[in-house]
Write a structure and sequence with these properties.
The chain is built from 18 helices and 15 strands. It is of the alpha/beta class. Strand 14, helix 15 and strand 15 form a beta-alpha-beta unit. Helix 6 packs across helix 7 (191-203), helix 6 (141-156) packs across helix 8 (219-226) and helix 16 crosses helix 17.
């Protein structure tokens, strides 16, 4: 019997890579006859965490094959431009990807090519080889509604989004104000906007769309997608919800890890955890405001702090170096809060922390992976979006799904100490927080049920793979 292969092509960003790898694991676990190969672009920036992650997955899941594409010359201006990195590099790799897929086809039947949003350039390559081509949207069904509707927004407006002070009435989601749309979409004449628009159009022409969500979490969005309302002028590809796909937490010894050891000594549901993703950094004035807000809230806290960003826009968002806490936090803050809080530098084992009994709340940037981790752990959130599509996620999470409270922010994104203290108190002890906690408990139950035998995500996976395993 001829072997069958599914090729996954993620973006190098760790958040996208982890989700795609988890999809590969999910496919192979339930269909061992399908070989899973993941194409890896050697990113021209520091990806130490990626390398360590891939090494670990290779050791624990030898059935997943990582195929490294060769290193090529990258234009210098790409390094300082996030969008050129994400969309442009896969375009440079198209000839190599074409040859790679042809080579794979000589040894095995490629049943599907699954692209990340940012790997859109390879859509034309896969289609030219007449390969079934899917997109894995690493966000949820609500975000998918918005992006599939982007061509309609483009065709029914003449101004750039930045010049529109309006709410978009997008099928499947609450009204979204123009200011909450991703900033990369603000200028309709910009290169990023054109790349997102082209991707949205291609997604509408794919063999299928896969989302990292589950039935019962974003039900209105799911129904809308399946009714084809997000693409009013053409058919919508089949949509499959196969989540929550999240990386399992490291098996850490709670007596050795500083964060978990500290949490072991705290009362149940008493600690609010603050962590803002792999790219979430704040300037010194905002860090000091957070510290003051935590002190004002009177609540126990575990806070991950990174070094403030450089003023040089050509440098990475964060230096990655260890922050000097005494230089960036208010004088005496660490001493005054030593009995209530723990501040850790750069990194903490987020999945293990969220699943710890002492954690009762999560101040989050609304990244989708972090959101799913919190939902599975039944931890209510304070939504504090920073970049990308996170402001839209806040709308879904706070207004539609009701698993988060939105912190008050200024138009430029600044959060005062008073606003943070109020949100933390509301979340941990107020009536608003109680309602959000109850909703999280229900969504956690649904999330776990979706991934079990007979669950909705298992059923969706079998619908997705049916044609791959029967032909």
């Amino acid at each position: 019997m001829e072997s069958a292969t599914v090729v996954l092509y993620p973006s190098p960003g760790i958040g996208h890579l982890v989700s795609m790898v988890e999809l590969g694991k999910f496919i192979h676990t339930h269909h061992p006859s399908l070989s899973v190969t993941i194409l890896i672009i050697p990113a021209p920036y520091g990806t130490g965490s990626n390398d360590k992650y891939i090494t670990k997955v290779s050791a624990t899941h030898p059935s997943i094959t990582f195929h490294y594409l060769p290193t090529i010359s990258i234009p210098p201006d790409f390094i300082s431009d996030h969008i050129k990195l994400n969309f442009g590099i896969p375009e440079l790799y198209n000839p190599i990807v074409h040859n790679t897929l042809v080579s794979f086809s000589e040894k095995s039947t490629i049943k599907a090519v699954i692209l990340d949003f940012f790997s859109n350039a390879a859509f034309e390559v896969a289609k030219s080889l007449k390969l079934p081509t899917y997109y894995f949207y690493t966000g949820g069904a609500s975000g998918l509604c918005v992006f599939l509707h982007l061509p309609t927004i483009h065709n029914t407006t003449e101004k750039s989004i930045k010049d529109l002070n309006t709410y978009f009435d997008i099928p499947g989601v609450p009204p979204i104000h123009s200011s909450d749309m991703p900033k990369l979409l603000f200028d309709r004449n910009s290169n990023p906007y054109k790349m997102f628009l082209k991707t949205a159009i291609n997604m509408g022409q794919a063999s299928g769309l896969i989302a990292n969500s589950f039935v019962g979490f974003e039900q209105r969005a799911v129904n809308t997608l399946r009714d084809g309302k997000c693409i009013p002028d053409g058919p919508t590809p089949p949509v499959y919800l196969v989540g929550p796909l999240i990386a399992a937490g490291n098996q850490l010894d709670s007596s050795e890890n500083e964060c978990l050891k500290w949490l072991n000594s705290q009362p149940s549901k008493s600690v609010v955890f603050l962590c803002f993703g792999s790219l979430g950094v704040f300037k010194k004035d905002q860090l000091k405001e957070i510290a003051i807000g935590l002190e004002k809230s009177g609540k126990k806290f575990l806070w991950v702090v990174r070094d403030p960003p450089s003023d040089d826009k050509n440098k990475p968002n964060s230096s990655g170096k260890e922050p000097r806490l005494d230089d960036i936090l208010p004088e005496g803050f660490l001493a005054r809060t030593s009995d209530k809080g723990l501040v850790v530098k750069n990194w903490a084992p987020q999945p293990a922390i969220l699943s710890h009994d002492s954690v009762g709340g999560f101040v989050s940037h609304c990244g989708w992976n972090s959101t799913l981790e919190a939902v599975v752990a039944a931890v209510p959130m304070v939504a504090w979006p920073l970049y990308a599509e996170q402001s839209m996620n806040r709308v879904y999470l706070a207004k539609e799904i009701k698993v988060a409270l939105a912190v008050k922010m200024s138009p430029d994104g600044f959060v005062t100490s008073e606003a943070l203290a109020e949100s933390v108190r509301d979340l941990m002890e107020g009536d608003k927080g109680k309602a959000v906690r109850e909703q999280n408990l229900e969504m956690s139950r649904r999330a776990k049920a979706a991934m079990e035998d007979g669950g909705s995500s298992r059923a969706e996976l079998f619908k997705l793979t049916e044609s791959w395993t029967t032909m």
